[in-house]
């Protein structure tokens, strides 16, 4: 180590003082040189540093290190005398009592306790990892409901056509199919009948172009095979596609065995082979098909509400909505053009048994019909200007509904993940999101997707995305926030209680209405006799009323008479008392005069 030491000494301590003396004067005349002036540089300002403090030296010294050692002792039992066995409970208790009775015991403890308490307090430490409020439930934060448009998929053709149906692929929803068709037959022109399969990540070009021989009204992915699709054609036929084999249809049904009107509804059903589906149309027929044999339907059902056994197609009611829930086996639902919803069962032996359950759902055609994915007994209907939630236990009235909208509703769908959320599309291009657990009088979110009429909506199976299509051939991929897609802890219990309460209330109202109808029927059946009896009862009531009025008048008169008698008696008593007092005064006056 380099050791340095700086010595400091004042000016007065070294050297001798100056000794000045007188000498001969020397005069010097130094003339100025103007040439040197060019080398002169004036400095302004001038900075000069001065250090007036003392300078100290730094010393570094190695000191001896201190050695520390930690010792501990395990104290299991206190010190006992040799003659006491600490494992014998009786001896230890007896000896402890003996010590506690000693006079010096208390003083000794008072001296030892402070030092022991000091040591104990030194060992107390705060555990920074301890969960102090583990049993307290955290209050969930209020999440904001919002949405954003992720992608837009536009119709590549020049003639803008309406998107009539959307369907997500079953392989985690990486693709979706869209059917394009101009449903306005007066303005329909051109020979472009193509529909497209889009990839979610690529909105610029379609993944696959389907080329049917006529426009497609509906297109649905198979839930078991992501390469197979079925669609309904404008001619009433149904067709099947395998995208591995090209854009052309693999098989098409025969015209004579197909629908009479354009087939705008087609859904897959549960089957062991995974090749069966059923279709519906405005002609009032439901047909079941098998893709292995597409020429002829396996079964046909005509929706004739008046005489279902006759199966007369000419008297059938058009079908505007179709629904199938895979978890309910052979049961299906269809919405009709007259606002009636039919809950059918394919296992019925007769046509009347297959369409036994009916609901008067809307005033106009039922546009959309869908069961709740979790509570399958409850289903949503959309029509005219309102949407309604129904329960299969209540047939006469719905258990919940939305207020009337200013614009016409075009479609509706339940959320795939959140139980209480469903979506509605309107003709003004607005998408409404309703959550009945939060509020029932207005939507929790209303988004203006575009300026055109929205035609259909299809939520993704994971719930966060939804495909929304409009009348000009554009499909919007909308992403929703977690508040609209993720269930909270008690959402299922709360929605169950809400639906049960509303169902119970509607049942009570239905029972009261049923009783009133029975009374009205009984009244009409006994018409004249009831009128005669009622007139006789009316006369008796009038007589009894007159009698009661007479009794009341008699009682009032009797009370008035008694009141007058009491007043007269009181007046007579007062007059008699006054007379007695006057007589006494006269007697006193006469006695005074005589004396």
Automatic annotation (TrEMBL):
GO terms for molecular function: dynein heavy chain binding; dynein light chain binding. Residues 536-546 have a biased composition (Basic and acidic residues). It comes from the Eukaryota. Gene3D superfamilies: YVTN repeat-like/Quinoprotein amine dehydrogenase. Keywords: Cell projection, Cilium, Cytoplasm, Cytoskeleton, Dynein, Microtubule, Motor protein, Repeat, WD repeat. The keyword Repeat applies. It is found in: Cytoplasm, Cytoskeleton, Cilium axoneme. One of its GO terms (cellular component) is microtubule. InterPro entries: Dynein_IC (IPR050687), WD40/YVTN_repeat-like_dom_sf (IPR015943), WD40_repeat_dom_sf (IPR036322), WD40_rpt (IPR001680). GO terms for biological process: cilium movement; outer dynein arm assembly. Residues 529-554 are annotated as: Disordered. Belongs to the dynein intermediate chain family. This is Dynein intermediate chain 2, axonemal. It comes from Dinoponera quadriceps. The gene is LOC106743708.
